[in-house]
Write a structure and sequence with these properties.
Layout lengths: L2 E14 L2 E14 L3 E5 L6 H8 L8 E8 L2 E2 L5 H7 L4 E4 L3 H4 L6 H12 L4 H14 L5 H4 L9 H13 L5 E5 L7 H18 L2 E6 L2 H7 L2 E6 L2 E7 H6 L4 H8 L39 H5 L4 E5 L2 E4 L6
Parallel strand pairs: 3-8, 3-9, 6-7, 7-8
Antiparallel strand pairs: 1-2, 1-4, 4-5, 9-10, 10-12, 11-12
Helix pairs in contact: 4-5, 4-7, 5-7, 7-8
Amino acid sequence: MANVVEVSGLQVEFPIGDSYCKAVRGVSFNMSEGQKLGLVGESGCGKSVTALALMSLLPPLAKVSGTISFLGKNLLEATEAERQKIRGNQISMIFQEPMTSLNPVHRIGDQIGESLLLHKGMSGAEARQEAIRLLEHVGIARAAQVVDEYPHQLSGGMRQRVMIAIAMACHPSLLIADEPTTALDVTIQAQILDLMQKVAQDFGTSILMITHNLGVVAEMCDHVAVMYAGNIVEQGEVRQVFHHPAHPYTRGLLNSLPGITGKRSRLQPIEGNVPSIRNIPDGCAFAPRCREARVECREGVPPFHQVEPGHRSRCFASAP
């Protein structure tokens, strides 16, 4: 099966003071048609910056290098006009907070219809009817009324459904979801995840799920990539990574989760803090926080090696 997305050696640098600092440091991953990839890690590890690079939404001062190949075209070499044809059409994004992502002064129908007018050449009446159909598809019961309402008139769950309707309006090949269940209660969260699964299946869309919630990844994704300090440290199928984590950081994330069965015990936190992009340590970036660190971890960068077929880790301890 051909890959929808191929990211190779992606680096993103931002100006800080008199120099540039790397927020993303050589990220590489592929996504095939219909694949659901979870990108996980602590805040500040570069997940959202990676997503914004895929959407070509980084600020002009950012330096981006590497390759982002989408359906065979390198987006980093595309013109702005070419990117605009892709953005919102073939690649869509659900942002973290729907209340701030939706325009408060425009009706819901107009916001859904914007991409239909731009990319599909529909008339205003056609876009309105399609907006109603999309609202119905994402489970909003009174779609004919909601299409004329404003974001503040809707609940958080309904606003997130509207965001999904906007993202899926043009039947994109890739949907990027940046913490799509933030600030939603667990019942609504489950409904939103089920809805995303459904619409992705209906349209054959690949999903890049950006989250710090490992439970969401286990529920939603078939593959997972764990990020730390701007790079991927472990990657594989969800069952491989969660059942047999090869990197100490991945084990730390899993051990920090509370269990729902068995005897209560203290959680095992990961000591220390994520390093600043101004001061990434030499060698393995996780070594200062790692209980298993060796001398070689502080002196050299560990290779990204295969642990088992389809499962890779960036750690000297698990290297063959």
